[in-house]
Amino acid sequence: MPKLRFAAPKERRVAVVTGGARGIGAASALRIAEEGRDIVIADVEHGGDVVRQIEASGQRAVFIETDVADEAAVYRMMAQTVEAFGRLDILVCCAGVLGREQPFIEQTAAEFDRVMKINVYGVYYAHQAAIPYMLNAGWGRCVTITSGARHGATNLVPYGVSKGAVFSLINALGNAYPKRGVFVNGVEPGRALTNMVVPRFSAEHLANPGTPIGRYSDAEEVAEVVEFLTSERNTYTTGSVWSVKGGTG
């Protein structure tokens, strides 16, 4: 690790990754594990494959089935993490749903509520449950995946609103606890080649999506930024949302 004046010693820390069974969540979990962290995969999908890959690298990992929209389940998962590993240092919130892609007037209140419960309440619950452990330890790093849809997505209004709310939450919490060693940030990946993105577009579009860099990202490229923000190398970034879009705009 570079000689950073305010860097904490690198330790075998413990990370919780919500939505860690696939996509950016799985890539982030694997990348963080490479740095000597133990991992909890918290997801409604079974995370056994990711757990096995992490264990093969020499780190410990467990899967805890968790619906992030269920406040009690989130708190229970965090408590189980500390019971299993004795600590909780890192939170990565990747659990999320796109929702129905349709015009606003066809969106229902029930769909809006469903998306908000997972994408906003799930992030809110996770931070409320995890941050006290970090404050007690005097060190913690939290990262949430956001989206450019926060600027407004005509056919994904619930999703866009949810990501706008998450952006505000990151800004607020990023300024809340840095003097106590807890940093809160976000990563805005644009479009990564995951199951949330690939089925929505033609092969022709995916081959030439019109981004300045000429392609969409792999999940592993986003995970590189997530890993940095959760690391001891991050000594001065909090309350920020890092763009990983292959260009601006």
Description:
This protein is an alpha/beta fold. Helices cover 40% and strands 14% of the residues. The chain has 7 helices and 7 strands; from the N terminus they run βαβαβαβαβαβααβ. The protein has a 7-stranded parallel beta sheet with strand order 3-2-1-4-5-6-7, with helices on both faces. Strand 4, helix 4 and strand 5 form a beta-alpha-beta unit. 43% of the residues are buried.
Outline the biggest β-sheet.
Answer: 7 strands, parallel
- CATH third-tier fold name: Rossmann fold
**Which architecture per CATH?**
3-Layer(aba) Sandwich
**Rg over C-alpha atoms, rounded to the nearest angstrom:** 17 Å
Give the number of domains: 1
Mean pLDDT: 93
Strand content: 5-15%
From the helix content, strand content and strand pairing, which structural class follows? alpha/beta
Q: State the share of residues found in helices, binned by percent.
A: 25-40%
Distance between the termini: 33 Å
**Cross-sheet strand order for the largest sheet:** 3-2-1-4-5-6-7
The level 1 CATH classification is Alpha Beta
Name the helix and strand elements from N-terminus to C-terminus, one letter apiece. Answer: EHEHEHEHEHEHHE
Q: How many distinct helices?
A: 7
Low-confidence stretches: none
Assign an overall shape: globular
- Count every beta strand, where a strand is a DSSP E run of 2 or more residues: 7
